[in-house]
């Protein structure tokens, strides 16, 4: 049964929220590139710990890559893993990011979404215990979650209160992973209510420019500037949103973008392709922010070519098994020892795997000629020999 809605400005709700937020240190969401890392699995679906650690080091690029490493999200196949494996990958991510902070500020965000509310809360407890920098929740993906606002304002608040400890929470909205029967996107009024909570610090939006703007408008009145961040999960959208105006058409597009986003451009980009090209995506983010049109075109051409390399035709229909391609590319680069996907994740057929290897080699050559060697991601460790990893 759905519980009665309690207004957030009521005495009872205010007291509950005050208790839940009293210990949280001031937190300004980190800006920049977030890499939703894949989960490196063997053919039996076990996590390959050494390869997972190598991948995290690779996306960090000794400070030239990710600002945020996001574990166990959609790209990490959260919905194909059990809680034990979700929590393992979360712990490995936190440990590696903590070791890398001597170079620059880096945050480890861990996905806590599970198929049930109980497992989701278990994952939040684990995130607190391993001292993750933030937790990420996709409310519409939890099968038995009837009311996202109630879960975030009541159940999570009570958990924080019981443990006398808490961490920032970021929401995640992606129609592709909404549970059956759920709405494709969070309602604007729900975002407004949740954004009032001190521990809710932003949202990752994998959607159109219009939906992105809806969320910006919803949150704009409830936090001081910079306290509630919007991150675009439609990564290639940054080349549109930050495009400098040129000519009448360009200026019209520029003001149209400002209208949709309420003059608040994303605080960061969540790029799945940055698993393979972290340095390139970091630099793309930088040149987009600077409005450097020639450089935006160069980086955009290289990064779009990777997306094209992941597209195949099956029975006359275009398909893009992105996770399988990311894992294949990491093997081609020597970063990972396995390109296995979890059961249920779309895989590459044998002929497609061979074709992808050919395309990826051509992409590497194109990237060198377009950007130069110094702009490209570098392997930060030796290739891992097959059969030497720990499988968990």
Task: Describe the protein's architecture and organization.
- It is globular, with a radius of gyration of 21 Å.
- With 392 residues, it is an alpha/beta fold.
- Mean pLDDT is 87; it is low at 1-6, 13-23 and 383-388.
- Strand 3 (107-111), helix 4 (117-129) and strand 4 (134-137) form a beta-alpha-beta unit.
- The protein has a domain at 12-277: Alpha-Beta Barrel (TIM Barrel), CATH 3.20.20.
- The chain has helices at 11-21, 49-60, 83-100, 117-129, 148-163, 188-194, 209-219, 238-241, 247-261, 278-290, 293-309, 322-333, 350-371; strands at residues 32-36, 68-71, 107-111, 134-137, 169-174, 200-206, 229-232, 268-270, 312-314, 317-319.
- The strands form two sheets. An eight-stranded parallel β-barrel has the order 1-2-3-4-5-6-7-8, surrounded by five helices.
Give a topology summary.
Elements lengths: L10 H11 L10 E5 L12 H12 L7 E4 L11 H18 L6 E5 L5 H13 L4 E4 L10 H16 L5 E6 L13 H7 L5 E7 L2 H11 L9 E4 L5 H4 L5 H15 L6 E3 L7 H13 L2 H17 L2 E3 L2 E3 L2 H12 L16 H22 L21
Parallel strand pairs: 1-2, 1-8, 2-3, 3-4, 4-5, 5-6, 6-7, 7-8
Antiparallel strand pairs: 9-10
Helix pairs in contact: 1-5, 2-3, 3-4, 5-6, 6-7, 7-9, 10-11, 11-13, 12-13
Rg, rounded, reads 21 Å
Q: Percentage of helical residues?
A: 40-55%
Strand portion? 5-15%
CATH H-level superfamily of the domain at 12-277: Aldolase class I
The strand order across the widest sheet is 1-2-3-4-5-6-7-8
Q: Helix- and strand-based class? A: alpha/beta
Q: Identify low-pLDDT runs.
A: 1-6, 13-23, 383-388
Question: What separation lies between the terminal Cα atoms?
Answer: 39 Å
Overall average pLDDT: 87
């Amino acid at each position: 049964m759905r519980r009665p809605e309690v207004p957030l400005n009521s005495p009872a709700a205010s007291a509950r929220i005050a208790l839940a937020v009293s210990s949280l240190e001031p937190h300004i969401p980190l800006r920049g590139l977030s890499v939703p890392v894949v989960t490196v699995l063997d053919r039996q679906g076990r996590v390959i710990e050494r390869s997972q650690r190598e991948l995290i080091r690779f996306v960090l690029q000794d400070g030239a890559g990710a600002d945020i490493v996001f574990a166990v999200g959609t790209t990490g196949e959260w919905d194909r893993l059990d809680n034990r494996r979700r929590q393992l990958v979360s712990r490995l991510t936190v440990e590696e990011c903590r070791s890398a902070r001597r170079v620059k500020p880096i945050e480890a965000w861990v996905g806590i979404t599970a198929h049930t509310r109980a497992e989701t809360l278990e994952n939040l407890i684990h995130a607190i215990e391993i001292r993750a920098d933030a937790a990420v929740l996709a409310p519409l993906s939890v099968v038995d979650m009837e009311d996202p606002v109630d879960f975030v304002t009541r159940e999570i608040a009570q958990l924080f209160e019981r443990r006398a400890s808490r961490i920032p929470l970021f929401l995640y909205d992606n129609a592709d992973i909404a549970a059956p029967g759920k709405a494709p996107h969070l309602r604007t009024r729900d975002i407004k209510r949740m954004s009032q909570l001190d521990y809710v610090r932003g949202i990752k939006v994998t959607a159109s420019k219009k939906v992105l703007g809806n969320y910006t408008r919803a949150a704009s009145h409830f936090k001081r500037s910079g306290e509630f961040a919007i991150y675009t999960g439609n990564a290639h959208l940054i080349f549109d949103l930050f495009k400098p105006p040129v000519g009448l058409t360009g200026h019209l597009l520029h003001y149209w973008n400002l209208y949709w986003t309420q003059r608040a451009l994303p605080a960061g980009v969540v790029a799945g392709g940055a698993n393979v090209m972290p340095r390139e995506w970091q630099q793309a983010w930088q040149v987009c922010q600077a409005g450097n049109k020639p450089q935006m075109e160069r980086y955009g051409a290289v990064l779009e070519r990777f997306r094209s390399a992941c597209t195949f035709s099956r029975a006359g229909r275009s398909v893009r098994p992105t996770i399988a391609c990311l894992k294949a590319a990491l093997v081609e680069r020597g970063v990972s020892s396995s390109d296995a996907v979890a059961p249920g994740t779309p895989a590459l057929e044998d002929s497609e795997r061979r074709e992808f290897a050919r395309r990826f080699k051509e992409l590497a050559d194109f990237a060198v000629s377009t950007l130069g060697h110094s702009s490209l991601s570098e392997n930060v460790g030796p290739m891992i020999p097959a059969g030497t990893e720990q499988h968990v």
